[in-house]
Amino acid sequence: MTWIDLIEPLQLQLLINNHREQEPLKGTRNERDFPPVVKLFVPWGAATWLLSECDPGGIAFGLCDMGFGSPELGSLDLQELADIEGPGGLHVEQDLHWSTEKPLSLWAVEARQHGQIKA
Q1: Each residue of 69-79: pLDDT tens digit?
Q2: Residues 6+ positions from 20 with CB-CB distance below 8 Å
Q3: What element of type H or E holds 81?
């Protein structure tokens, strides 16, 4: 599986658009606080990712919760997620019915308070 297969095309384009908008603003007071565009999860465990940006090469930015009680904001390689294989050949999946208008920073605050993403 390739990283492009992880995310529906429309959401992937939104992630890339957010990255392109954010890139010239990084390190300034004008950085955007986008709502996450996509929720990825493992169906066999507690790992969850809420992504707000992605460069065209598959490096995404978002809130990452590996299920250990300490969700963090950061970048991740989507190909690494695509390469994960769980029990019975399961893979990381996109929650196709999930959406939010809440900015990523608020998701991060709430996830840290609860020790997990509650999405």
Answers
A1: 999 999 999 99
A2: none
A3: helix 78-82
